[in-house]
Each structure stands twice: as C-alpha cells, then as structure tokens.
C-alpha cells in the first residue's frame, strides 16, 4: 500500500530546552494514523552548536535550518508556525517577534506572566491575522473530553459538590541550581505559574465549562488563596474556588516539595465520585475511575507508544490552520486570559499579605 499523502505543517522552534525536546520528539514520532505530517523546519537557539545537538538528538531525520537567532526563525519563509519553548518571562517578546514575522504561534504555558501582557499578545495576533494559542496540552488529552461528557452530558455524578486537584512535584528549591527557571524570579519562577496553572485548568474543564455554570452567566468563582514563599518565590500554593451557582468548591493545590500521588484529582458529586490519575504529572492524565453505585469503570488514555501526548495539541492546531481558524475552541484565548487573571489575583492577594507582614516578595523587585 502507498503511504498516505499527508498535509504538512512546518514548525519553527525557538528555545532548545527541555519542553522543546519533548514537543519535537512527539511530533516526529511515526504514527500510523497521524492526520498531519509535522516537519521541524527551523530551530532557533542561543548557539548553532546547541541547535545542532538538539536536532541530532530529537529530530535526526528532519534536517531543520539552525539559527543562532530567534529572529531568523520568525523571518524564515519556510516556517508556517513558531513554537515558543522559552522561560515564561520571554513568551511575550518571543511570540510578538513571531507575529511580527507573520507567523502563527503556539506559545508554551503560561501564555505570558500576567493577563495584561496576554491582552497585548492577543491584540497583536488579531491585528496581524495570525493564529495564536497557549500550549495547554492537557486540554487536548482525550480524557478531558471524555470527562466532560460524563460530567456535563451524562451527569453521572449528579450535582457536583467538591473537586480536589493537586499538582505536586518533588524538586525542592534547595535541590535546584540557582539558574533554574523554577527558582529564578527573573525567569518567572514559582509553582503557581508553572504547575498551579494546570490545577486551574482542571477546574476550568470540570466547573467553568459546566453547562449549568454557563447558563448562570459564568459568574467568576469566589476565591481564597495563599502561597508559601521561599526567598520570595512560591514553592507551594493553595487556591479555593467557590462556584456558588453550582454549589461546588474546587480546592487547587500545587507544590514543588512533595512527589504527590498518581491519583491527582477527585471529583465528588451527589451520586458518587470520579478519580483521575496520571503516571507522572497532572498535566498528562492516564486514566479515570468512575465510582458510582451500579457503575464502576476505568477508562485509560490510549497514546502512541513512546509519546508523551503533545501530538494531540499539535494535530488540533494543524486542523485549525487547515480550516483557516485563528483560534482554537478547546483552548480559546479568552480562557488563557481568564486563568491568567485568576493567577494575577492569587499573586495580588499574596502581595497584600506580604505587605501586612512586612515580608519581601522578590517577584515584585525585578
Ligand atoms: N507543557 C509542558 O508540559 C511543559 C511546559 N514547560 C514550559 O516551557 C517553558 C520552558 O521551560 P523548560 O523547557 O523547562 O525550560 P529550559 O530552561 O529547559 O529551556 C528553556 C530554553 O529557553 C531558551 N532561553 C532563552 N532565553 C533564556 C534565558 N535567559 N534563560 C534560560 N533559557 C533561555 C534556552 O534555549 P536556547 O539556549 O536554545 O536558546 C533554554 O534552553 C516554560 O514556560 C514552561 O512553563 C516546561 C516544561 C513542561
Ligand atoms: O508538566 C509539567 O511538569 C513539569 C513542570 O516543571 C512543567 O513546567 C509542567 O508544564
């Protein structure tokens, strides 16, 4: 049988660090049912030699052009879309550069370090007429849509009462090099922006998108939160969102100080509960278990052997671009803005507490 002729999407990658290596490795993995041929067309890195090592290791069969300047990727005519895989604080500048070069953009999470910057980015993309999306890959995991069917259409749990969501990683600040982006405020350090964002995303998938919440006009949940600061950066953060219209609370926690449990989410409703688990982290769920009287089942995520699951979002982006859409409806820009607004509020609350207690919060000083 002849191999299928697939539509091609040509990626320019800026930043050859950890996430770019995961993303690229997933895109180039052979997949029998891939709807798009993702081509790694160009790499932008701080040095050509770093770019070459990256290409040899993560996409050896793709032969991308390698540049020691991100600008060259933005201006490369053979690139359709730029993937921004740099630390949070550079997302705005890098994505704006790509937009200026007329490129579509997939920018890593968080889209920017605050909602104000995201508004600037979204306006720039709209003005230029290019696609823009935050790479919140969790939203594209097939389990997310399945969960929403169970909760929102089948209403298998009845009215929801509490949702516990935790993203814990064991990488205490004391174990990290001072240059780590998790630790360095000048790179956007802290658990909230890095991993807390996923807990708010799960709350969004479960509660903000609940049809009864939408029917009530999507009133913003009441919020309480606190952060544990180490040298002014949050190592642990807890947020409670109270959806008064649904009669349900979401308890969202994140920390770098504990490895956490595989079962990272429990949704409690009047008829039972659903537990969601992940082999490694809450960003990439692997299964869910329904525990309702008369219906107990486990659903596993099917994923291409060896892949992490970044291809789900990349395929969705390719489909949008083929259809001429400039925004994705699973990960809409308004949602990126709304979640950034919540994180701004958490930081704002902490800032007020800091002032009351005369603490120093380094993020403010940079
Ligand atoms: N979706 C997911 O699961 C994940 C998402 N992320 C997101 O990806 C982004 C990058 O994280 P990660 O890959 O872990 O970070 P890394 O530090 O591993 O890589 C970031 C890369 O950005 C480039 N860079 C540009 N300017 C700087 C600078 N001043 N300091 C350091 N690096 C710089 C470097 O690439 P070069 O030298 O080649 O230019 C560097 O290798 C973050 O915003 C994070 O939130 C991270 C991990 C997982
Ligand atoms: O999924 C993830 O796990 C590890 C984190 O540091 C990273 O930024 C996040 O996206």
Automatic annotation (TrEMBL):
The keyword Ribosomal protein does not apply. It catalyses: D-xylose + NADP(+) = D-xylono-1,5-lactone + NADPH + H(+). Residues 153-274 form the GFO/IDH/MocA-like oxidoreductase domain. Residues 9-134 form the Gfo/Idh/MocA-like oxidoreductase N-terminal domain. Its EC number is 1.1.1.179. It is an enzyme of class 1 (oxidoreductase). Keywords: Oxidoreductase. InterPro entries: Gfo/Idh/MocA-like_OxRdtase_N (IPR000683), Gfo/Idh/MocA_domain (IPR050984), GFO_IDH_MocA-like_dom (IPR055170), NAD(P)-bd_dom_sf (IPR036291). It comes from the Eukaryota. SUPFAM superfamilies: Glyceraldehyde-3-phosphate dehydrogenase-like, C-terminal domain, NAD(P)-binding Rossmann-fold domains. The keyword Calcium does not apply. One of its GO terms (molecular function) is nucleotide binding. Belongs to the Gfo/Idh/MocA family. This is D-xylose 1-dehydrogenase (NADP(+), D-xylono-1,5-lactone-forming). It comes from Hyaloscypha bicolor E.
């Amino acid at each position: 049988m002849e191999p299928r002729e697939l539509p091609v999407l040509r990626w320019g990658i800026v930043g050859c660090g950890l996430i770019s290596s995961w993303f690229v490795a997933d895109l180039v993995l052979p997949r029998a049912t891939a709807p798009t041929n993702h081509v790694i067309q160009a790499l932008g890195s701080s040095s050509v030699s770093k770019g070459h090592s990256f290409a040899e290791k993560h996409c050896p069969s793709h032969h991308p052009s390698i540049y020691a300047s991100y600008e060259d990727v933005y201006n490369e005519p053979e690139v359709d879309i730029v993937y921004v895989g740099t630390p949070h604080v550079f997302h705005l500048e890098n994505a704006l550069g790509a937009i200026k070069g007329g490129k579509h953009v997939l920018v890593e999470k968080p889209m920017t370090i605050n909602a104000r910057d995201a508004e600037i980015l979204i306006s720039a993309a709209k003005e230029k007429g290019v696609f823009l999306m935050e790479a919140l890959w969790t939203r594209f995991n097939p389990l997310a849509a399945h969960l929403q069917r169970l909760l929102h259409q089948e209403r298998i749990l009845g009215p929801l009462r509490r949702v516990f969501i935790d993203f814990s990683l064991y990488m205490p600040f004391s174990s990290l090099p001072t240059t780590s982006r998790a630790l360095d405020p000048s790179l956007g350090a802290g658990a909230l922006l890095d991993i807390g964002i996923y807990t708010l995303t799960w709350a969004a998938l479960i509660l903000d998108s609940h049809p009864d919440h939408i029917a009530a006009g999507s009133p913003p949940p009441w919020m309480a939160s606190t952060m544990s600061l180490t040298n002014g950066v949050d190592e642990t953060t807890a947020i409670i969102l109270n959806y008064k219209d649904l009669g349900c609370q979401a308890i969202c926690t994140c920390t770098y100080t504990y490895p956490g449990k595989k079962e990272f989410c429990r949704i409690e409703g009047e008829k039972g509960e659903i537990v969601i688990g992940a082999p490694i982290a809450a960003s990439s769920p692997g299964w869910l278990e329904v525990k309702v009287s008369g219906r107990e089942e486990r659903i596993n995520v099917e994923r291409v052997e060896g892949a992490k699951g970044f291809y789900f979002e990349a395929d969705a982006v390719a489909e949008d671009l083929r259809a001429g859409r400039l925004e994705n409806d699973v990960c809409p820009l308004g949602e990126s803005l709304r979640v950034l607004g919540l994180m701004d509020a958490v930081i704002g609350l902490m800032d007020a507490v800091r002032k009351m207690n005369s603490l120093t919060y380094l993020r403010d000083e940079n």
